[in-house]
Write a structure and sequence with these properties.
The complex is a heterodimer of chains A (113) and B (109).
Chain A lengths: L3 E4 L2 E4 L5 E7 L5 E8 L3 E10 L2 E4 L6 E3 L9 E3 L8 E8 L8 E2 L3 E5 L1
Parallel strand pairs in A: 2-11
Antiparallel strand pairs in A: 1-3, 3-8, 4-5, 4-9, 5-6, 7-8, 9-10, 9-11
Chain B lengths: L3 E2 L4 E5 L4 E7 L6 E7 L6 E7 L4 E4 L2 E6 L4 E6 L8 E8 L3 E3 L3 E6 L1
Parallel strand pairs in B: 2-11
Antiparallel strand pairs in B: 1-3, 3-8, 4-5, 4-9, 6-7, 7-8, 9-10, 9-11
Classes of the chains: A mainly beta (113), B mainly beta (109).
């Protein structure tokens, strides 16, 4: 019973580098989302998807891209990392659009130097 | 502009007493509210929820109250236990799920 799996758990990037944070869920959930957690700011929504082929922006989408080619996977791409993107990133999934219990991954701690 | 606000960054209570965590929201479109608990180095886990058509929901030691006119909800934990020590996030949903900044609860033995 894997639930929501995020990889990697830790990553250090240099400014300007690109990378993809992976997220996969095995619960057949339609709704998936990405959050970043920063001290004093709580969890802020980056992007979300209500199903394969459909994505939308959240509160803080700038600097991040997403795609949803399958129900299971929802990768988050940083095209040109900046120190302001240093954060802990969480992927979540839930059965219905924005409703009901969301299941979270363990998080990815990203440092941009 | 955060639409969900938790104005108390921390709360400390004695074991056995009641813990009350508060949350305010600004968007009247929110129609479902949740509380999550988070331990260090783990993802948040769901605790309890309430629909906007209700004003109270109980689950064991946890009760959530919703006051729609005041756009305010609260989480009551009775009795509080040391294992309840964690960060608690309030969340509200409409088309997506928005979170507050969290409240760190410490329950002292």
């Amino acid at each position: 019973n894997a639930g929501v799996t995020q990889t990697p758990k830790f990553q250090v990037l240099k400014t300007g580098q690109s990378m993809t944070l992976q997220c996969a869920q095995d619960m057949n959930h339609e709704y998936m989302s990405w959050y970043r957690q920063d001290p004093g700011m709580g969890l802020r929504l980056i992007h979300y998807s209500v199903g394969a082929g459909i994505t939308d922006q959240g509160e803080v989408p700038n600097g991040y891209n997403v795609s949803r080619s399958t129900t299971e996977d929802f990768p988050l791409r940083l095209l040109s990392a900046a120190p302001s993107q240093t954060s802990v990133y969480f992927c979540a999934s839930s059965l219905w659009t924005g409703k009901g219990e969301a299941f979270f991954g363990q998080g990815t701690r990203l440092t941009v130097v | 502009d955060q639409q969900v606000k938790q104005n108390s960054p921390s709360l400390s209570v004695q074991e056995g007493r009641i813990s009350i965590l508060n949350c305010d929201y600004t968007n009247s479109m929110f129609d479902y509210f949740l509380w999550y608990k988070k331990y260090p180095a783990e993802g948040p886990t769901f605790l309890i929820s309430i629909s906007s058509i209700k004003d109270k929901n109980e689950d064991g030691r946890f009760t959530v109250f919703l006051n729609k006119s005041a756009k305010h909800l609260s989480l009551h934990i009775v009795p509080s236990q040391p294992g309840d020590s964690a960060v608690y996030f309030c969340a509200a949903t409409y088309n997506d799920m928005r979170f507050g900044a969290g409240t760190r609860l410490t329950v002292k033995p």
